[in-house]
Amino acid sequence: MSARSAGSSRLMSRAFELARAVRGTTSPNPAVGAVVARGSQIVGEGATQPPGGAHAEAMALRQAGDLAHGATLYVTLEPCDHYGRTPPCTEAIIESGIARVVVAVGDPDLRVSGRGLEQLREAGIEVSLGDGAAEGAAHYEAYVHHRRTGRPFVTAKFAASLDGRIASTSGDSRWISGPQTLRWAHQNRPLFDAMLVGVETIIVDNPQLTARPERWSGPVPQPLRVI
């Protein structure tokens, strides 16, 4: 691996760190991280803000200021090129004077797919796609599934006893999930938009259906409760 490739991978990894830090807070937008760098020096960072707030690219460019001119932007997902609640990220990138954009994953959203990258290229910006693609595939698995199929990405969690039972024969409320599984569930619940249980679970267990992670920075996002 060349020195440039190693540096690029490190900076893209940092962009994914920023993206992971805001998971669960950006829906319906995907969690994106962005880094502006001059050589190996980071001069601006940003992540997607809650709905209606700035996108990751805009946050990073704002922090970089004039240092963005001639610099490289590393971003985990293809920049948008359309107006929504916020202006297109491609416009902000072009206006900033960024010389090169490195993107991990193309956006499957038909409003963006490929057009964001093409607009940057037409403006004379060097564009590279695929650095961090493996990490991006895992990070955006649910987002890509929804955009391509129109269906929600569903994760099923259930517990069973050693003899294959999921409830007691008497119908009493009893824990089957172990402590490790419960910790995993609460740590991951904030990453989902909704949590679905059957009415019998409500009647028998009267669960809180809330996310109570042991480790979380900032307010904990709570999924919609569906019965």
Give the arrangement of secondary structure elements.
Layout: H1 3-21, E1 33-38, E2 41-47, H2 56-64, E3 72-77, H3 89-96, E4 100-105, H4 115-122, E5 126-129, H5 133-139, H6 141-149, H7 179-188, E6 194-196, H8 199-205, E7 224-226
Parallel strand pairs: 3-4, 4-5, 6-7
Antiparallel strand pairs: 1-2, 1-3
- Shape call: elongated
SSE order, one letter for each helix or strand: HEEHEHEHEHHHEHE
Helix content: 25-40%
Report the radius of gyration as a whole number of Å: 21 Å
Query: Quaternary status of these chains?
Result: single chain
Question: How many strands appear in the DSSP assignment?
Answer: 7
Tell me the structural class. Answer: alpha/beta
Helix tally? 8
Between the first and last Cα atoms, what is the distance in angstroms? Answer: 52 Å
Q: Beta-strand level of the residues, as a percent range?
A: 15-25%
Compute the average pLDDT.
Answer: 90
Strand arrangement across the biggest beta sheet: 2-1-3-4-5
- Using the 3D structure, state the CATH architecture of the largest domain: 3-Layer(aba) Sandwich
Largest sheet: 5 strands, mixed
Counted up, domains total 2
CATH topology of the largest domain: Cytidine Deaminase, domain 2
Q: Residue ranges: pLDDT <50 for 5 or more in a row?
A: none
Short descriptors:
alpha/beta, 2 domains, Dihydrofolate Reductase, subunit A, Cytidine Deaminase, domain 2, 7 strands, two-stranded parallel ribbon, 8 helices, single chain, 34% helix
